[in-house]
Amino acid sequence: MAIVKTIRPGLIQIRVLDLDETLEFYKNVVGLDEVGRTSDGRVMLKTYDEFDHHSVVLRKAEEAGLDYVAFKVMDAETLEQIKVDTEKFGYAVEEATDEQPGFGKRYSTKLCTGHTIQFYNEVELAADYPMLKNPDPWKEEPRGMRAQRFDHLLCYGPNIAEAERYFIEVLGMFAPEVCNTEDGKRFATWLTGGNKAHDIAFVEYEQPGKMHHFAFYLQDWNDIGHAADLIGKNRVKRDVGPTRHAITRGQTIYFFEPSGNRIETYAGGYAAYPDNPQRVWDVAEVGRGLFYYEGELIPSFLSVVS
Amino acid sequence: MEYKVTDATTGNTFMADENDSLFFAMRRKHEGPITYGCGGGGCGACKIEILDGNFEIFKKMSRAHVSEQEQDSGIVLACCVKPKSNLTLKKFSQK
Ligand code: FES
Ligand SMILES: [Fe+2]
What we know:
CATH architecture of chain B: Roll
Shape of chain B: globular
CATH topology of the largest domain in chain A: 2,3-Dihydroxybiphenyl 1,2-Dioxygenase, domain 1
Number of domains of chain B: 1
CATH class of chain B: Alpha Beta
Largest sheet of chain B: 5 strands, mixed
Number of helices of chain B: 2
Order of helices and strands of chain A: EHEEEEHEEEEHEEEEHEEEEHH
Oligomer: heterodimer
CATH topology of chain B: Ubiquitin-like (UB roll)
CATH superfamily of the largest domain in chain A: 2,3-Dihydroxybiphenyl 1,2-Dioxygenase, domain 1
CATH superfamily of chain B: Beta-grasp domain
Shape of chain A: globular
Bound molecules: FE2/S2 (inorganic) cluster, fe (ii) ion
Strand content of chain B: 25-35%
Largest interface: A-B, 22 and 18 residues
Structural class of chain B: alpha+beta
Strand content of chain A: 35-45%
Radius of gyration of chain B: 12 Å
Radius of gyration of chain A: 18 Å
Structural class of chain A: alpha/beta
Largest sheet of chain A: 9 strands, mixed
Distance between the termini of chain A: 35 Å
């Protein structure tokens, strides 16, 4: 199935409390490469396997959490169409003015859940990107957890049913999997614009604008084990795993970086097709859905967010 | 050096090393009012009120969870403070 409108979440800006300590962690433990700094001191990073200029930005702030996530869309026409359709949907749109070197025009909007999301089409290739001609899997052996790409994020906020409708109607995405409360309301939704099991997910939560985690894709279950070794070695605050999700089927480990933002390293996951029937979870079973080996929720998972 | 920490709510006590955050001391000993959190000063799950004793804030605390005023009155994030004397504390609760 071809991607309709939205290619992927390609850029995420995260607030960190201690920039030096947290940057060191992303570089040496997660294994990201530093691309450079903006004029106001934010740090741009990318994985070894990404092509675009950068994918992760760290901003030193008084609070941890998510500034915004930006989705790369098919072409310039789609970008303008999304702007118009977002306004029609009822969300105000403005052009993003904060500096993101290498990126072209970005539109920004705020969802009912309190999260700021952006769209762009143009972005320069990175100075250092994966090989194209007779390519090796990598140019230099990947460091740390060997993160391959920024993969997805999970947002907590109010009225996720509306946010889901927005992603489907305006961004051309679909929800391969959802979770409902006993009275049939959305408790959680997993949304994708392509074949990945999810690009973004939401859980219903009273407080707006919270980030539960953002995730990097790892090659396989062996690399999840290797990530767990690094968690042990570096005394990282692990949250859950290594384990397996029944939801999306991914293999996973969750931990906290030094500013308290939760990171997931994720591998596997099914291929999502928009013509397949939707998988539905009851909220009473969601513990098993999230942590298939444990068979139950762990208390930090639903209540600890940044 | 270890200090005695008293949970004012239960009256239970436990020993905490001066080099550990109170959060990790509580996790390690399975004592005290905080059982989980990010350990990084970002999530606010470990918010406590220190009623008595000296402590050091060694790590930046998210202002989303502890205001300057709160900090001045001994309300802190347990993952960002180390004990510097015997302490009495309790889990923070909205008044
Ligand atoms: S455990 Fe998250 S702020 Fe202390
Ligand atoms: Fe995830």
